[in-house]
């Protein structure tokens, strides 16, 4: 019982305060329109409008916290600070999905807040009025007596107490039943308008994951470059020095036989094999030519070494993330290897351009076509490399050719 009365008090206070705030909120659309139109008055609106939207955010956020407190929910605080610069502020308020939710809340608060607040005021006000009016029935003129339950006049203490008790009990029951439900309905509508929808949350989550993935790939690329430098400048240099010393030792001993000579020969050959394997590992981790000549120079080197004449068409690429640059290099390298081994082509063409936030790589040959991704042609490896960057691979290879491999790699978060 006590808990129910506490809910009624909270709900009544919520709705009775929500009534005047809903009435004040009816002015918000006019204020926003006036702030937007004031841009024509010497550009005043350029400064005023973002601040008006920020003020709306604070107004809506206050109601959001009230609604969450009534429903005993936890809500995270929203950012209410404006950036620096007029252009940044306009971009912030126009691109922020929360701005549209705030505007949506304005109309929902007006439509639900005014009727719910008036209903609560009628229920609670009638109970309070009846209590006071019943005790002061004798102050009413005899020709216009106090009337309770809508039509029954009060003529004495008996009728006053009887009719007053019935009216108080009726509206108390109505308040008991209706006010908490009206308050919960209004609060839930308020949160529904201001909280992001499931689709908005999914979009925000995808954006966060995309940004974090881009950061991880950049960090991974930087780490690969560091390891490549360490192996190239440290481990490989030491192997070269060891191989040279072993070679000098073999020269000093001559070409004689014996256990020591055999051990030196095996150690020398093993060191040279280790250097060869290490160079291959370094090349597959992060090709040094990318660091030296960039993607354009690296692709040109691949074309020069290809067993098929290759035409190169490179657009303005700008600065690319390390992971994207490396992936593009290996895609071209694997594609040209496939062309030389399997296509029987006489000409190939590599085209790399940048369109907005994507890097487009296209490799075409005039070979026999009919690429089978399951036949060990390396296309599956390319597809996995592209998928790791959330890219897209399209292979067009009808029998008889030509074969076109088109890749789109996102280069921005």
TrEMBL record:
InterPro entries: HATPase_C_sf (IPR036890), HATPase_dom (IPR003594), Put_sensor_dom (IPR025828), Sensor_HK_TwoCompSys (IPR050482), Sig_transdc_His_kin_sub3_dim/P (IPR011712). Signal peptide: none annotated. Its EC number is 2.7.13.3. It is an enzyme of class 2 (transferase). Residues 323-413 form the Histidine kinase/HSP90-like ATPase domain. SUPFAM superfamilies: ATPase domain of HSP90 chaperone/DNA topoisomerase II/histidine kinase. It catalyses: ATP + protein L-histidine = ADP + protein N-phospho-L-histidine. The chain crosses the membrane at residues 12-32, 38-56, 110-140, 160-179. The keyword Transcription does not apply. This is histidine kinase. Keywords: ATP-binding, Kinase, Membrane, Nucleotide-binding, Phosphoprotein, Transferase, Transmembrane, Transmembrane helix, Two-component regulatory system. It comes from Nonomuraea insulae. The keyword RNA-binding does not apply. GO terms for molecular function: kinase activity. SMART domains: HATPase_c (SM00387).
